[in-house]
Amino acid sequence: MNRCTEHRAPLPPPTPWALHMSWHDLLFIHWPVPVESLRRLVPGPLDIDTFAGRAWIAVVPFRMTNVRPRGLPTLPWLSRFAELNVRTYVRPGGPDHGTGQGGVYFFSLDAANPVAVTAARRFFHLPYFRARMSNRHDDGWVRYRSDRTHRGAAPATFEGRYRPIGEPYLAAPGSLDAFLTERYCLYTLDRHGRLMQGNIHHDPWPLQPAEAHIATNTMLEPLGLEVPAAAPLLHFAKRLGVTADRLFKVC
Fold it and tell me: Are 212 and 29 in contact (CB under 8 A)?
């Protein structure tokens, strides 16, 4: 399993990995947004992380393979499915936590596998939603569609096509690209409202510049947000192997 740490800050405490997966054909779609537009959406124990004074929100479509919990093999009906995330960037703050490790906060995670959705909600306390999803390669493009079908959840749809348009590169330390992509932990609240952290491990992102044609994107509407009018910042990644650790309570 990939536990490489030389390229990023250490993430204590070390815990046994819980989940292995591979991410494919991932597109980062990022927009800068005012910090105050996200404050009501992010739990109080977390500060919104900024770059040059601006917060960022992202819609991230991709597909996963080789998904398996520790100690179990991959299963054809469980280990391959599409996923689409809506996320921002945070760090623990305030008098109780100081300034902790910068990480990801997920507003939603739509997935095409109902078993994975149920397991992620229960064991990782993440806002996963069932969705009807498709993705395929077509003449160099990835064509992607997601329609949320989760019972009782607000509808949300993404449809578009995207592709890389340049050679892979590694984000320079301290750059905006690194700020947006080189994140090695997530934060969430458990059912008791306690702040939890989960570390992930992978090699640096093999980023490529990208282009996208987005026909429909209502993924921000359930948050009460509009898609910014400005053109998004786009990055593509072909493949990345990942392990995720168990959650632990932030002290």
Answer: yes
If we measure between CA atoms, which residue out of 115, 145, 143, 136 comes closest to residue 219? 145
Residues 68, 73, 76, 79, Cα dihedral to 10°: 10
Cis peptide bond N-terminal to 114, omega within 30: no
CA–CA gap between residue 78 and residue 115 (Å, rounded): 7
Q: Give dist(CA 5, CA 3) in Å, integer.
A: 6
- DSSP label at residue 153: S
Q: DSSP alpha helices (H): ranges in the chain?
A: 35-39, 114-124, 176-181
Q: What is the pTM of this model?
A: 0.92
31: left (phi over 0), alpha (psi -120 to 50) or beta: beta
The number of helix segments (H) and strand segments (E) in the chain equals 3, 13
From first to last of its 251 residues, what are the pLDDT tens digits of the chain?
444 455 555 555 556 788 999 999 999 999 999 999 999 999 999 999 999 999 999 999 999 999 988 877 777 777 899 999 999 999 998 545 445 799 999 999 999 999 999 989 998 999 999 999 999 999 999 999 999 999 999 999 999 999 999 999 999 999 999 999 999 999 999 999 999 999 999 999 999 999 999 999 999 999 999 999 999 999 999 999 999 999 999 96
Alpha-helix residue ranges (DSSP H) falling in 128-241: 176-181
